[in-house]
Structures are given as structure tokens and as C-alpha cells.
């Protein structure tokens, strides 16, 4: 078994690699090539937290995986990861464990890459301004995915904690300097969102974190944080303004995401308003953006296929390059 820590993964796997892996994962899901049951979700209400188990198997890859991830949003206040996790990878021909890897980092990579894939497939060609709402454990890779996919010249970052937003923006300006973007903290959500071509929301909020009226025509929005029915980052009015609505996986979103379940229950939208899954766009089965002025929304809750394809590609690369610790 190969043990892979964050530094090992970083040596062999980039955000560009992650976006390619996640696109493949979404395609596998749409083609029926990955058995990935809806995740088991154990609630820990005392800490506004949950523990998730996410298995997947793909015959094409001869591989299986299972990720156990704990989502404890208040960990950020303690200086701890908000989504500690481990990923186990199995040989699909023998059932033996081939790798154990830092699931927190795999999750950050593949979750960021989902937004990156959505922007590549759905956003306008030129997207000079980006906005990021939320600066928790998933935020760095969300930002890097945005920069990798569309290379905005400016990204505005907002968090309810102003000091944290400023510290995050300063850190990312230095750490992601190679992308050549100006990364700055915004004083309000509206300041971040107005004029933005790309918007990512990645918070555990139970109420909307932006005003739909601030979103410009032609914007592409990736809503990442609402992975449970009682969570809602998205102003539901954006669904009224949007031309298209895509999911990472329809069944998973309709099982979990308050961003979609609440507007459905309120009658603001119906299932007739769903455009389809991102994998079908990648496969050319359904259209993506068709006009420059379309507002397009992508809702993602994360599926185990992302972990499987990402982990398998990391393992193959690390094995080929002799990276990691054999146990």
C-alpha cells in the first residue's frame, strides 16, 4: 500500500490534472460507468457537523475507492481543517488496498476542479473579473481552479469575517502569484459580485450570501457549499434570472442541496428548469453556453466518482515517479 500525504500529491498532480480528472468523473457518471451510491450522511448537530462515507467503483479503471470525510465548519475558528478526510484506493481486480491518501487535500483538489470544469464548459471566453465568497478550507483550491480555467485578471474575495478575508487575499496574492491576477478582499458581498464574470460561493451558510440583483448578464456561478438540505448560499432569485441550470449529478443535488430543494419546495422553479448534468455537456450530449448574456448556474454537492478518478490518477502518477511511502 502506498501512503500519500499532501506534499506527495502536490509533487505529481496539478490543478490542471484535477480538472481533467473531474471532467472524466462526470462523464463516467453520465455514461453509467461508475457505481457511486448516494453518500451516507451522519449528522453531528452539536457542532453543526456531519460525517460522510462515499464509496465508488469503475470497471473501466479497475479501481474502487472509499472516502470518509468529516465536515466540521467551526474547525476554521480553531485553526483546524474544516473537512478532515482520508481516501482509500483499491485494486478493482483483487480488492486489495493500493493506496491511502490525504483525503482532505484530495477533496480540496476535486471540489475546486468541479468549479474549474464548469467554468471551462459554461463560461464566456473572456472572463476578466472573478468573485469568491468564503475563505474556509475549500477556498484556496476553488480560487486556483478559477484562475486555471479562465485566467481572470482580478478576483475579489468576500467573507463575513473581514480580517479573515483580508488575510486570505494577501496570502493567495503571494501563493498564486504565478497566475498574474490581482486578488483583493471586498468589503461587502455586493462589492465582490457586481461586475464579476465568474462567481464561486463556498460557505456553510444557511441563508443566501449574495444578492441576485448584483449578478451581471453573462456571469457563470458555481455554488459549492450547500451540501445539505438546510443550507442555502444561493439567492434563489438568481434561478429566475438564469438561462441554464446544471448539476454535477442530478440525483445527488436533489437529495442534498438546499440551494435547489428550497426553491423547488417554494414553487420558484420546477424540474423543467433543470438543463442537465455537467458530464453531458462535456460529452457533447447537451449544449453549454449559447449566448454571451446568459446567466448560467452550476450546483455541485460532490460525488464519489470525483474522488475515485482523482485518486486513481494521483496513485498512477505517484507510482510511476516513485513518490510516497510504501507501507
Would you kindly provide a brief summary of this structure?
The chain is α/β, with parallel strands linked by helices and 327 residues long. 36% of the residues lie in helices and 23% in strands.
Average pLDDT, to the nearest integer?
96
Radius of gyration: 19 Å
Looking at CATH, the homologous superfamily of the largest domain is: NAD(P)-binding Rossmann-like Domain
Number of helices: 11
Instruction: Provide the low-confidence segments as ranges.
Output: none
The strands making up the biggest β-sheet line up spatially as: 9-8-7-10-11-14-12-13
Assembly state of the chains shown:
single chain
Tell me the structural class. Answer: alpha/beta
The number of E-state strands comes to 15
How many separate domains make up the residues? Answer: 2
List the secondary-structure elements in sequence, H or E: EHHEEEEEHEHEHEHEEHEHHEHEHE
- The CATH architecture category of the largest domain equals 3-Layer(aba) Sandwich
Which percent range fits the helix content?
25-40%
Give the biggest sheet.
8 strands, parallel
- Morphology: globular
Proportion of β residues? 15-25%
Amino acid at each position: 500500500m502506498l501512503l500519500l500525504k499532501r506534499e506527495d500529491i502536490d509533487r505529481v498532480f496539478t490543478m490542471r490534472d484535477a480538472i481533467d480528472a473531474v471532467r472524466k468523473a462526470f462523464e463516467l457518471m453520465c455514461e453509467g460507468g461508475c457505481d457511486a451510491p448516494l453518500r451516507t450522511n451522519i449528522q453531528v448537530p452539536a457542532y453543526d457537523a456531519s460525517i460522510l462515507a462515499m464509496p465508488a467503483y469503475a470497471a473501466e479503471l479497475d479501481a474502487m475507492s472509499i472516502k470518509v470525510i468529516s465536515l466540521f465548519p467551526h474547525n476554521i475558528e480553531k485553526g483546524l481543517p474544516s473537512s478532515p478526510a482520508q481516501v482509500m484506493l483499491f485494486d478493482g481486480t483483487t480488492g486489495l488496498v493500493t493506496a491511502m491518501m490525504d483525503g482532505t487535500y484530495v477533496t480540496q483538489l476535486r471540489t475546486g476542479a468541479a468549479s474549474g470544469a464548469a467554468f471551462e464548459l459554461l463560461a464566456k471566453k473572456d472572463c476578466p473579473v472573478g468573485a469568491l465568497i468564503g475563505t474556509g478550507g475549500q477556498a484556496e483550491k476553488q480560487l486556483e481552479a478559477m484562475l486555471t480555467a479562465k485566467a481572470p485578471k482580478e478576483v475579489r474575495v468576500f467573507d463575513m469575517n473581514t480580517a479573515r478575508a483580508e488575510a486570505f487575499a494577501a496570502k493567495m496574492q503571494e501563493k498564486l502569484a504565478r497566475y498574474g491576477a490581482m486578488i483583493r478582499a471586498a468589503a461587502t458581498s455586493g462589492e465582490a459580485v457586481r461586475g464579476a464574470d465568474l462567481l464561486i460561493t463556498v460557505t456553510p451558510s444557511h441563508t443566501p450570501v449574495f444578492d441576485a440583483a448584483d449578478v451581471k448578464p453573462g456571469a457563470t456561478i458555481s455554488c459549492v457549499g450547500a451540501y445539505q438540505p438546510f443550507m442555502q448560499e444561493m439567492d434563489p432569485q438568481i434561478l429566475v434570472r438564469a438561462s441554464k441550470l446544471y448539476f454535477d449529478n442530478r440525483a445527488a443535488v436533489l437529495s442534498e442541496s438546499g440551494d435547489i430543494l428550497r426553491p423547488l419546495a417554494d414553487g420558484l422553479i420546477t424540474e423543467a428548469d433543470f438543463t442537465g448534468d455537467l458530464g453531458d455537456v462535456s460529452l457533447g450530449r447537451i449544449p453549454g453556453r449559447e449566448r454571451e448574456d446568459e446567466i448560467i448556474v452550476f450546483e455541485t454537492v460532490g460525488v464519489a466518482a470525483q474522488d475515485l478518478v482523482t485518486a486513481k490518477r494521483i496513485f498512477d502518477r505517484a507510482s510511476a515517479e516513485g513518490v510516497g511511502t510504501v507501507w
